[in-house]
Amino acid sequence: MQIADVQEQIDHELVSSQQIERKIRQVAAQVSHDYQGRRPLLVAVLKGAVNTLVALSQAMTIDAQIDFMSLSSYGSGSSSSGRITVRQDLSTDVKGRNVLIVEDIIDSGYTLDWTVRELKRRGAASVEVFALLEKPARRKVEVPVKYKGFEVPDEFVVGFGLDYDERFRNLDSIAVLKPEVYEGSLV
Ligand code: IMP
Ligand code: MG
Questions:
Q1: What pTM value is reported for the model?
Q2: Which ligand has its closest atom nearest to the C-alpha of 139?
Q3: Residue nearest to atom 9 of ligand 1 (CA)
Q4: Within 13 Å, how many C-alpha atoms sit on residue 151's CB side?
């Protein structure tokens, strides 16, 4: 789905599909080089990171294993907190593996911080991070991000896996919705 298909609900585009594609190609080349001979395990946190994981893995030039985990974080309102539980776990034992966590967006950083520490606790040989988007203004915990995509302003964004109320995940670019959408008058 493209911006034109949901034009009425979109305020403006932040990152185009071409920009995303180009960036992911660059990161894939770097990752392929860095993990040569090590068959990395790419881990996506469901559901937002799925698009990025698929695009990254397909642009890589070395074999990689993929896996998924689903987390829920209990916080006040829309912001996440440090309390996180596993809703659906990985099917892979990460012990001794070189893990690359693929994230859609780092907001407070709580989710990622927890995930990195958990995979290290399980004995991963290395844990690195690729985040397609970062919202630096909202960061609460610092997590080292080795592979970076784009920085976005402190606005709620959708597309390329990111949703608002489970919508707009299949948009091929990153965009900001019109305020009316959140207010429920433009559904
Ligand atoms: P954190 O734990 O606060 O860093 O939350 C990260 C998660 O919150 C991301 O993986 C997204 O699922 C979700 N999230 C944060 N900001 C946005 C946004 O602007 N649009 C859609 N989802 C978001
Ligand atoms: Mg997410």
A1: 0.94
A2: 1
A3: 105
A4: 6
For each of the domains in the chain, give its residue range(s) and CATH number, in order of start: 17-152 (3.40.50.2020)
Residues 6+ apart with CB under 8 A from 113: 82, 141, 143
Tell me which of 78, 117, 158, 162 to substitute to probe ligand 1's pocket, judged by most ligand atoms within 8 Å of the beta carbon.
162
* Mutate which of 107, 155, 167 for ligand 1 pocket (most atoms within 8 A of beta carbon): 107
Q: Which two tokens stand for residue 36?
A: 């040569």
Looking at ligand 1, which residue's alpha carbon is closest to its atom 10?
Answer: 105
32 and 63 in contact (C-beta within 8 Å)?
no
* pLDDT tens-digit series, residues 113-161: 999 999 999 999 999 999 999 999 999 999 999 999 999 999 999 999 9
pLDDT digits (tens, 9 = 90+) for 34-83: 999 999 999 999 999 999 999 999 999 999 999 999 998 765 445 566 68
Catalytic annotation present for 104: no
